[in-house]
Design a protein that fits this description.
The protein contains three helices and five strands, in the order E-H-H-E-E-H-E-E.
């Protein structure tokens, strides 16, 4: 499918944590993609994943971040690239924090993180109801 319109939301930062983006910014990219690609069934989960991954980038990477959305076949891929090379790890949730990766795992078919030059990409795959592309 053609790429959805609009640029990916970005966070800004330097040596200190970046200021948070507007409340709806992390959800905008997956929302637009799901509408453009007629993927209403995964829209809310995609918005949740993007929000949680962006929150992790803000809290832990203290760097610029970019939200990326693609649809390779039967899955919607929601990913966040940031400038930290530290891979995420799930921790025992507390009242204040630690639930994000558990929430992402609960709604995703698969999750992962890949180190890249200058940082990492953390991603989740959401199963769509589409068959394989021909």
């Amino acid at each position: 499918p053609p790429a959805p319109p609009a640029a990916a939301p970005r966070g800004r930062g330097g040596g200190s944590p970046p200021p948070p983006p507007p409340a709806g910014a992390p959800r905008a990219r997956p929302d637009e993609a799901c509408r453009a690609w007629d993927l209403a069934a995964v829209r809310e989960d995609a918005r949740l994943v993007a929000t949680e991954l962006a929150a992790n980038a803000i809290l832990h990477a203290a760097s610029d971040f970019e939200i990326m959305v693609s649809c390779p076949g039967r899955y919607l891929r929601v990913a966040v690239r940031d400038a930290s090379s530290v891979l995420p790890r799930a921790v025992q949730p507390s009242i204040e924090r630690g639930r994000g990766l558990h929430l992402i795992d609960a709604v995703s078919a698969n999750t992962g993180a890949t180190r890249i030059p200058g940082g990492k990409i953390v991603w989740a795959l959401l199963r769509t109801n589409r068959g394989p592309r021909t």
